[in-house]
Amino acid sequence: MDALRRVRVCSSFIAMKPSWIVPPAQQRYTTVPHVETLDPSSQKQGDTKEGFYFGREISPESPEAKLPLHGPNQWPNEHLVPGYRASMEQYMRAMNELGHRLLRLLALGLGLPPDHFDRFFDRPMIFLRPLHYAPKVSAPSEGVFGAGAHSDYGMLTLLKTDDVPGLQIHTDATGWMDVPPKPECFIINLGDMLERWTNGMYKSTLHRVVNTTGKERYSLACFFEPNFDTIVECLPQCCSPERPPQFPPTTSGQHLLDKYASTHAGYANLKQ
């Protein structure tokens, strides 16, 4: 987490570049507080967080570079934060390895060969999002949250947090409950795409961030998603005449674009 603190996304840094420093659908940009509203039904203002988006490095000459959700990363100046890019790229490689290990466990849990998902993740969309939450107490009754209630859009989220509490998850049995921070551990969230692929056998994790301490908080979220053109449709093992598919087929890329369009104005009307 020291790397996050070295690159606190302060207003002076963001002032050096516009909020959307590349076309937003390339998923390589900075966000400022109140830009992202994850739960419009209950939020009176946008999330009180800011951060970067980085992704798997792609050559500008690669055909992939022309795809939505792909493109050049916009790194902080090396002179301002020495070693930051190298540390983030090393972290992404480690998360890619961890993500593939988790995919094998998911496959085994579904009664599939352990390498079932491998072919869908040989060009994965990996989005790394270092986040800084403002030292501002949330007011849920007034619609003010560090991050509004939402489930993550993709396959898996590999989350690392500092020692400041704030993350909450929701279950039908308990309602909202705190997730105690354990800096030595990862928190793994299941996303909407996995729920779609498994016809609801694996449920995505509804969660939010509520600042109860008034302290600033840092987290590092890695979103681990299939190749852009992967067909996402109900696995045969997850449906039956009694349990027909709940979702129509789509692609990984279009699923994410549709989801982002609901919370990011820059994605509206963008299609694969």
From TrEMBL:
Keyword set, alphabetical order: Iron, Metal-binding, Oxidoreductase
Fe2OG dioxygenase domain segment(s): 88-226
Record InterPro entries: DIOX_N (IPR026992), IPNS-like_FE2OG_OXY (IPR044861), IPNS-like_sf (IPR027443), Iron_ascorbate_oxido_reductase (IPR050231), Oxoglu/Fe-dep_dioxygenase_dom (IPR005123)
Extent of the signal sequence: none
GO MF, one example: metal ion binding
Pfam families listed in its UniProt record: 2OG-FeII_Oxy, DIOX_N
Recorded family membership: Belongs to the iron/ascorbate-dependent oxidoreductase family.
Matching PANTHER family: 2-OXOGLUTARATE (2OG) AND FE(II)-DEPENDENT OXYGENASE SUPERFAMILY PROTEIN-RELATED
Name of this chain's protein: Fe2OG dioxygenase domain-containing protein
Gene source species: Dunaliella tertiolecta (Green alga)
